[in-house]
UniProtKB/TrEMBL annotation:
Domain of life: Bacteria
Domain SnoaL-like stretches: 7-102
Gene3D superfamilies linked to this entry: 3.10.450.50
Pfam family name, one: SnoaL_2
Protein name (record): SnoaL-like protein
Amino acid sequence: MQLPAPIRTYFAAQAPQDAEALAAAFAPDAVVRDEHRTYRGPEEILAWWQAAKAQYRHRAEPLDLTQAADKTAVRARVSGDFPGSPATLTFTFGLAGGRITDLEIR
């Protein structure tokens, strides 16, 4: 499975050392939706990512990828310190200009 570069960066990034690389993978006006909350722009997205990594110490292993219209959906096995671990979640990415423009996690 060949992941686009910004999605590969998203899944490979480890907190805290890869924070700058992760933030650079997102467009300036990017939006992330996770757990019924919305995060806008690289600063909010980076704060969300760092807090989630600290709280859940999770890791996501991509399982498969599908493309539909302008979205790339990646099913991933997520394991960490949370009830129900491991869980299979879908990460739906919008991409433009080599960056992530939007991400929804379900």
